[in-house]
Amino acid sequence: MTTVSSLAPDPRWRRLPEERPQQILDAALSVFAEHGIDGAKLEEIAARAGVSKGTIYLYFPSKEELFRAVIRQKIGPLIANADLLVAAEGTAEQQMRAYLAHQWECLGREESEGWIRLVVFELHKYPDLAAFHWDEIVSQSNRILGDIIQRGVASGEFRATETIATARMIKALILMHVLWTGPRAPAPPEHRPSMESVLSNVTDFVLHALRAVPASGAPKA
After folding, report:
1. Same CATH topology for 8-61 and 71-221?
2. Does the structure show a pLDDT above 60 at 16?
3. Among 58, 140, 154, 220, which residue's beta carbon has the most beta carbons within 10 A?
4. Is the pLDDT score of 1 beyond 60?
5. CB–CB of 220/212 below 8 Å?
6. Beta-carbon contacts of residue 70 (< 8 Å; ≥ 6 apart)
7. Which DSSP symbol is given to 177?
8. With the C-alpha atoms ordered 209, 215, 217, 219, is the resulting torsion angle positive or negative?
9. Are the C-beta atoms of 33 and 111 separated by less than 8 Å?
10. CB 146 within 8 A of CB 167
């Protein structure tokens, strides 16, 4: 028997027009992370967002432009938040701890592992999107991390080091640990460390590598 409730449309389809772009972007972020750029289908994004495929084209003229919007509106603000965190008062070591904790919190999100795999293994096939991602995300994150490193060197907290190379090594530690501990990690679940222990170990490793060493050769306390 057909009831009134069974005839009612899915509440997702009754969203206000101004809500639709964000719902589409949220759905796109998840689908891109799960399937990559090649495998992401606008039909699936539309279904998850509760809109028609045609509605997507009202806001985003192509899949590539939708990807750019995800970077600009969903990924970019996380980097901006990191900038605000490290701008607060504190020693370079305290700012490095805050930066690493924020990065790890962001990368601990459900879709982060898939997004990293997309960037590492697929984005090179789209040179324009790769350049856009570099300018919007990578360069900004490198600048924030590089400023902390330079601040620590100038204050004497950190040893003299090449900023860009050091930032690259620190980020490599973080990104690879996401891949080693995420849902598709090669190790069985029972052998994956907790997110908290990974952050603690990575932070300890990074700070030990950065701290200035007195002339005697003994690390600073």
Report:
1. no
2. no
3. 140
4. no
5. yes
6. 25, 28, 29, 32
7. H
8. negative
9. yes
10. yes
Q: What is this structure's pTM? A: 0.79
* Confidence band, pLDDT 50/70/90 cuts, at residue 81: confident
Half-sphere exposure of 128 (CA within 13 A, CB side): 4
Tokens of 205: 């490793």
Token output for 114: 């898939």
Distance separating the N- and C-terminal Cα atoms of the chain = 76
Q: What distance in Å separates the CA atoms of residue 81 and residue 83, rounded to the nearest whole number?
A: 5
Where do the structural domains in the chain lie, given as residue ranges?
Answer: 8-61, 71-221
| Half-sphere exposure at residue 186, Cβ-oriented, CA atoms within 13 angstroms | 3
> Is domain 8-61 classified as CATH 1.10.10.60?
yes
Measured in residues, the chain has a length of: 221
71-221: CATH superfamily: Tetracycline Repressor, domain 2 (1.10.357.10)
Contact between 24 and 66 under an 8 Å Cβ cutoff? The reply is yes
Cα separation, 106 vs 128, in Å, equals: 25
| Distance from chain centroid for Cα 123 | 15
Residue where the block lists tokens 């997110």 = 195
Query: Which range is most confident: 2-6, 127-131, 182-186?
Result: 127-131
pLDDT tens for residues 123-171? 999 999 999 999 999 998 899 999 999 999 999 999 999 999 999 999 9
Write down the pLDDT at residue 13. 45
Q: In 8-133, which ranges are continuous DSSP H helix? A: 20-39, 42-49, 53-59, 63-70, 76-86, 92-107, 112-121, 127-133
